[in-house]
């Protein structure tokens, strides 16, 4: 389920995944957090629309539960190797039958409110 038109390049995608995973941490992001995330995303060379697809279809399905009311949230973020491992496992998981349907339903859900607000802030910095 690769959504960006190029073949998946893990070296190029890893910093994007790590930056976008920051939208799902439990702490309040500061201006310098937003600036750092935007800088990483800008350097990736992906368009804003491509970045939003990566957020919604690759990162959010893995990390959205961190913002759940029932979760004990990760407050400081994740190491890049952890982010890559978790997202790769998600992307490589076999999707057939019911699993494919559940995956589609899960990725089509709206982002959590906190992540949406954070993404809009990042998006404004990328424009």
UniProtKB/TrEMBL annotation:
It comes from the Bacteria. Pfam families: DUF7079. Residues 11-124 form the DUF7079 domain. InterPro entries: DUF7079 (IPR055507). This is DUF7079 domain-containing protein. It comes from Trinickia soli. The lineage of its organism: Bacteria, Pseudomonadati, Pseudomonadota, Betaproteobacteria, Burkholderiales.
